[in-house]
User: Which sequence fits this backbone?
């Protein structure tokens, strides 16, 4: 059985699956490829939310990189940013769902880095940082 934290990360990965022909990678699976999406689940802060509940705020970073992209590179990278945000914030349709089907209380973008190539390179992409808030039973990371 996965913790709620792991279920949140897996739900994000599932939403990003449509962006690439390959698998969406986790940080421990990082690899060189012509195109990839990688999810980095980071630390989370915990506080008591209400009686019997713990309130967790976790950072998740999504990287979407391509080795070959059309010029202008900045426009291509900005389009990739839009693809990431649209994929992760919607439920597979055009309906916004920042709760990941009820796993999270909320999910918000807190930062973005647009990556354009240095001289002689053609790697472009974006890095999007999300703040995901979810709750669990006090002392039980497996139960909401």
Assistant:
């Amino acid at each position: 059985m996965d913790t709620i934290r792991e279920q949140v990360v897996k739900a994000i990965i599932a939403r990003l699956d449509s962006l690439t022909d390959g698998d969406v990678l986790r940080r421990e699976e990082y690899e060189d490829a012509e195109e990839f999406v990688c999810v980095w689940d980071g630390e989370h802060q915990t506080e008591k939310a209400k009686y019997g509940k713990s309130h967790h705020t976790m950072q998740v970073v999504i990287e979407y990189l391509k080795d070959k992209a059309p010029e202008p590179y900045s426009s291509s990278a900005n389009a990739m940013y839009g693809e990431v945000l649209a994929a992760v914030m919607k439920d597979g349709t055009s309906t916004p769902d920042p709760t990941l089907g009820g796993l999270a209380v909320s999910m918000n973008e807190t930062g973005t880095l647009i990556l354009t190539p240095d001289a002689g390179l053609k790697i472009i992409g974006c890095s999007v940082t999300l703040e995901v808030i979810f709750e669990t039973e006090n002392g039980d990371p497996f139960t909401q």
Observations:
- The mean pLDDT is 90.
- The longest helix spans residues 73-89.
- The CA atoms of residues 25 and 31 lie 8 Å apart.
